[in-house]
Amino acid sequence: MIVCFDIGGTAIKGALAFSPDDIRPFPRIATPSADFSAFVDALKSVIEQAPERPTCVAISICGVIDPEDQRANVANIPCIHTRLLQQDLEAALDLPVIIANDADCFVMAEAARGAGRGHRVVFGIILGTGVGGGIVVNGSLINQQGGFAGEWGHGAVAATEAGEPPLHIPRFACGCGQKGCIDATCSARGMEKIHAHLTGKTRTSEQIVADWLSDDPEARRTIEIYIDLLSAPLAMAINLTGASIVPVGGGLSNAIELINAIDLAVRARILHRYNRPVIVTAQLHTEPGLIGAAMLGLAYQPE
Questions:
Q1: Which distant-in-sequence residues (6+ apart) come within 8 Å of 2 by Cβ?
Q2: Lesser CB count within 10 Å: N end or C end of the chain?
Q3: Rounded to two decimals, what is the model's pTM?
Q4: 146-160 pLDDT, tens per residue?
Q5: Of 299, 302, 298, 258, which Cα lies nearest the Cα of 280?
C-alpha cells in the first residue's frame, strides 16, 4: 500500500493505493503555498489515515524536478520552489518519496489504463490553461529522474502566418520568458488571443468553440488558424518521438469535435500515414494525476 498525492497550486488531492484498480481518494485540502512546515503537515494529515505504514509516498506536482540538480521548479507553490524536494520530504515524512510532473503522471495513467493501452510509445499532451506533455515508452516514463522531455509547449516555434489565405499572427509572449511558444499561442488563453487579434472581440475559449460548432464565420476562422498553428509542431513532435497515439487532456479536450479536427490536420502532416485517429481524447477524466502517481508508487522497489 502506498499514499499518493496530486498537488496543485490551490489544492492537494490525496489517496491510498492498494493496487492500480484500488485507489481510495480522500477529500481535497488546500495547498499551503507559503509555509513548508504547513505543507508537510498537510501531507502527514493524509498519511496518518493509512491503516498501515505505506511503502512510499508518490506525488504528482504542477512543476518539474531538474534532472541535474534535483531541485523543484514549482513557481506557483513558493514554499517548495527551488527545494531539493524529494530529499526534504523524505526527511520530514520518514518515507521514500517519488515525485513526477503532473503531465507525466497523466500520460503514465493513459498509457497503462486509458487510450494508450497497447501502444509502445505514448505521447500524452495537455491543451488547457497551458500546453504540456509527457512520454511513456514500453510502459516507463522518459522522465524517470525528472526532466523536461515531452514539454513541447515551450520553444519559439509558433508560425507567424497561418490559415488560408495566410494571416500574420503575432509571436505572443510566454510565461517562460520567450515569445512564440505553443503554450502562449495554442493554450485556451492563446486561442482567445488569436480571436481577439482577428476580430477585436473578447471571447472565452468555450465561447469560441461553441460559436465554431454553430458555424459562426469569425469563430470558424479563429479555429482554422488555431489548428494550423498547433498541428505543425505537434506533427513534428510525433515524428520525433515515434508515438502511435496521443491522448489529450486539459479543458480543450472536452471539445471532441475540436480534437477530431486537430487529428485530421496532424495526420496529414506526419510521416507515417495512419488510417485511424492518432490524436484522441483522454479516457481517464477522473483524477489521472492520482492514478499516474499511484502507478509510479506501486512500482517502487526499495533498494
A1: 16, 17, 54, 55, 56, 57, 58, 294, 297, 298, 300
A2: C
A3: 0.90
A4: 778 889 999 889 999
A5: 258
